Amino acid sequence: MQEAFLHYLWQFKKFQILNLKTTHGQAVTIIKCGQHNHLAGPDFFAAQLKIDDQLWAGNVEIHIKSSDWYVHSHEKDAAYQNVILHVVWEHDTDIFRKDNSVIPTLELKKYSDKQLLDNYYQLFSKQQKWINCEPDFHSTADFLLNNWLERLYIERLEKKAVAISDLLEKLKNNWEAVLFVMLAKNFGLNINGDAFLSMAQSLDFNIIRKLQNKPEELEALFFGQAGVLDANSQEPYEQHLVKHYHYLKNKFQLNNDHVTSPQYFKLRPPNFPTIRLSQLAQLYLESDSLFSKTIAGTTLEEFYVLFQVGCSTFWESHYTFQTISKTSKKILTKSFINLLIINTIVPLKFAYSKHQGQDQVSELLDLMKKVPSENNTIVKKFNDLKPMPDSAYVSQALLQLKTQYCDLNKCLQCAIGNRLLNK
């Protein structure tokens, strides 16, 4: 038994609410259960109850056992002196206020529905399961699932919007700089995302603006600041970039002491940091007002065109400075641009619209429904349980479901878990 389940029972009155009596035989009528408190203090604020013939307004505290009141030292905490009802699963001792009056206690075990309890124990059984509802997930009605996935995806966007808002504040309300930092992180993908992020955050975006018509200097800036240049190299192009970077470092007083070095291990050559940094530089060389164009874009085709960039000439025949490879343009693929749409473009557009006091949720959902689903273990396992629509909107919602609900055993806050509890 979890306290969270007792909170659920109380909040939604999932028990026999007629003829309730305290452990001392007093009649209890619930007028208002109160406001659920997720912070420190009593579990429910501003409840309204009738105990015998007396009306009460105050707080409700919930425990598995009555004695937990003393285990948690509530008798020493003034915040609990306004508790008007102690709701417990099992009553094992009376609880007293400072004036020695007994706090009325309601033992829920006597009034709970057996079927609901059976469903609860089945959902939270200790069997080895990937998610708690694994045996029943396939039976979830499409209507319920689709509505829940939409709420989950918006919840995910809201969380990302908070992080973007924090980043905007650090960058002095410069949306262009915010876009650059987010793009840099996502150009690094999972393995080098943090390294590229540290590189981007070590730069003043005004420097990038000043170099947007200077290809070799901008590439030297990214390569040097990321720490991928070897000052002792004998390769002519690398030597050339090293000279440019030393000049820029002195001119702009750059410091990359806290920049994380990117890695090549376990990466396919198209994802080498050299290629991705060159493509990022090329993007800013070819696109003026990238932020404005990103905000103005509404279709997949527009973003495919906007981000269809390659790398500089040297990297068309190299993956590293030392080794020549077969010549290719190394243009960003649609699948890579899809990741930028999922992780950068849509979250940024969502955060920007909120900042402007606008609502673009419907348009962004429509866009995400056209982006193919991500291919990862979580999405695959959910699809094994129940086939899902092929869209990034669904895959992002499933990631939110798994990481923020299933992994945390928050079935009581999940629409699917609620359905299974109340079936």
Automatic annotation (TrEMBL):
Alphabetized InterPro entries for the sequence: DUF2851
Pfam families, per database record: DUF2851
Protein name as it appears in the record: DUF2851 family protein
